[in-house]
Amino acid sequence: MSFAVIKTGGKQYRVASGDILKVEKLPEFTEGKKIIFSEVLLLDDGTETKLGDPLLKGVKVEGEMLEEGKAKKLLVLRFKSKSNYKKIKGHRQPYTRIKITEISK
Question: What one-character DSSP code corresponds to residue 18?
Fold first, then answer.
């Protein structure tokens, strides 16, 4: 089973063909649109492992956009005891769900 490590949105993800993952929101969203990740850091095809310095050249990971949405609400609380100070804020991080279709060398 081959897998790759890609970089997108300031994070690194280990992906294999057929995986579905949530990444930071991508700018141009169209359902079913193909997307190519060219920032591949590592590639393993089961027999050999290629490691980039920092990126691999000529290796691409292709995916398909499935949906766009917001994650569950995260509450941010500021509190100071004995002074009657409390401030609550909510945050919902936007994401794009992607299905990995192909890893090409």
Answer: T
Q: Say which residue the tokens 């980039």 belong to.
A: 52
How confident is the model over 46-69, as pLDDT tens digits?
899 999 999 999 999 999 999 999
Distance CA 105, CA 82 (A): 62
Q: Give the chain's length.
A: 105
Query: In whole angstroms, how far apart are CA 81 and each of 33, 76, 86, 100?
Result: 51, 16, 9, 49
CA 2 to CA 52: how far, in whole Å? 16
Asked if residue 77 lies in contact with residue 85, where contact means CB atoms within 8 angstroms, the answer is no
Model pTM above 0.85: no
Which position has the token pair 């949105």?
Answer: 9
